[in-house]
Each structure stands twice: as C-alpha cells, then as structure tokens.
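HUMAN:
Just now I want nothing more than another pair of eyes on a protein record. I would be glad if you read both lines and explained how they fit together. I have put the entry right below:
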Amino acid sequence: MDKLRIVVCDTDAQEAEKYVQICRDVCIAANVQAEFKIYSTVNYFLFDIKDEAFSALVSIILIEPRGGFGEIPEIIRESGYDGLILYLSHSTSVSHYHQAFDSKAFNYLQKGSDDKSLSRFLRVFADALNAAKSLVRQYIVLSCAGEYRQIDIRDIFYFEGTMDHMVCVEYKGGSFHFPSTLQKMDSRLRDRGFVRTHRSFIVAIDAIHSIGSNEVILNNGRKVPVGRSYLSSMKSTIERWKL
C-alpha cells in the first residue's frame, strides 16, 4: 500500500504537533506508513492544495476551522478533492458543524486532553485510517525530479521496467519515466485491473485486445511480450477480473 499523506490545518502549532504525535502512534500501531504536514496559515495551504499533483497525494485533512480555515473544506471539495476531511476543534459553533456536514466531513471531534475526548479521537482516527486505506481513486500520481503526472487509471496501457530502477508508463497522453521498480508497482496496482505479463511489463487488463502464447496485443496496436512463467497466472488473473 502507498504511504498515506496526512495534513493538519491549525493556527495553533503547538496543538497541531500534539495531535500529529498522537496520529503517528496510531499509524505505527496499525502498521500504516504515513507522513504528516502542518499548515498554520491558510495561504500556504491554499497554495499547495491547488496543485492537483499535491492534492491527489493527500489522504486525510484534519481541520481546525477557527483562524480562517473554516472555508477551506468547501473550497477543496469544489476543486475536486476526494480524500477524507476530519474536523478537530475547540469550536462549538453551529456554523462550523454545518460546514463539516456540507463538505461531507468524515467526523467532527472536540479537542480535549481528558480521557473521553482522547479515546473518541483515537477511535475515530483509526476508523479514518481504515477508510483512507480502502479509498480507491481513479488516478495515480507519479513523480520524477520534481515533475508530477496525475494519470487516469483508465488511460494507462502498460508499465515497462527499464534499467537503473526506472519505470516507464505508457498511457493515452504519452509516456513518463519515474524511479521505481515493477515489483513495487505490481504491489501498488494489485486488484486495480493490472496484470504482470513479463518480468519487464505490467499491463492494464482493459487495454488488452487479444492474447497469444508469447504476446498480448493492446487496443492501441502495441505488442507486449508474455513470459512463459507468467502465462498461467496472467490468464487466471484476467479471468477473475472479467467476472
């Protein structure tokens, strides 16, 4: 599974750090890899979140609506953000509850160091982690040397492993080389409609036009080799996907 990106928007940096540490502990206990970023000002957050490549990487946003962040959920939902939003606040304002509801927030939690508040936060955040892990997005974000590509899963033809731990993705919009391995991509794309056909190729099942004993022909006319050791498992994977 990919590493989860979790963002905390809170003008109180000390409180934000406290909850990040709590969240890290929950992630470790759940064996979930996660990285965190704190925003204490609205402008910095808006600058980053408007970058589609960045927003596509964020799985969970914890929002303290006070201090100017109250309008953020509506803005990012309108821009197409489909990750989880979790309100975490001292506020009991009805308008903030309405904002949470309108932005389809995962939950609204009251801050507090008492056992009841902390226990509820731990439970809800654990549930949010599970929801984020099962969130199936219809695109994949790849990067190389500071350049990002957000590619619709349905547009991908295949991935080809090249030398020096680089992979090339071929898709309707072109191609893109990025640092990775086919083993990592195979794990990342498992159960998302892709099949390993060769030690150097992973192919989108829906892009396959016909299958031969030593190659598959794709919808774009491209021929991709099939390794003998992959033929049986490739066919069974395709049959299961087509059910």
